[in-house]
Write a structure and sequence with these properties.
The protein is an alpha+beta fold. Helices cover about 30% and strands about 20% of the residues. The protein is built from 5 helices and 7 strands, in the order βββαβααβααββ. The protein has a 5-stranded mixed β-sheet with strand order 1-5-7-6-4, sandwiched between helices. The longest helix is centred in the middle third of the chain and has 17 residues.
Length: about 200
Amino acid sequence: ALSSLVSAGSALAATEPISDPSTAVERADRIGNATQTSSPTGPPVTAPPTPAGGVSTEMQQVLDLVNVERTSRGLVPLTFSPELNVAALAHTQRQAADGAIYHTDPRDGSDPGDRISRTGYAFSTWGENVAAGYRSPEAVMSGWMTSSGHCRNILNPAFTELGVGHVTGGATYGQFWTQVFARPLGVPRPPGTYDASWC
């Protein structure tokens, strides 16, 4: 089985192996920040089909696992944002169709900030993790938590909201995942301090 991960804010780095030899991660070392929304590029994002209520079992499990990691370290739990879910799901579908994972869309050059802005979400900060090949929420979260860039996004005290995308199928990997983290513009930064020993 093939697996791959990418974490990012505004940069994308090369593939690197993690503990499982059949798994590879791609990482990014920065979290994107902005004081206002950037100008969107490309067509507006439309929501991919979602289950009744808009949140699948896998999406909810990813949020729950993220919040276990955060609250165990004294950080505020994240809540779902419908707009971030739209951005995450649409990006996951694009990657599944391409059989690849990335932060900068090769078709239109959009980055996570652009995709978030297209949904109408005004952010003060954002981050993105992507992955492919992991067969369950627990497996992908384990992969993300054992990779420093992904772990830093999950445990960033500045974030308050999350969007999750999950697609079964697609080329090469069979499973694609996206986490989109953000805090809305004008919302105060929550309490909490990141500890480098966590990741």
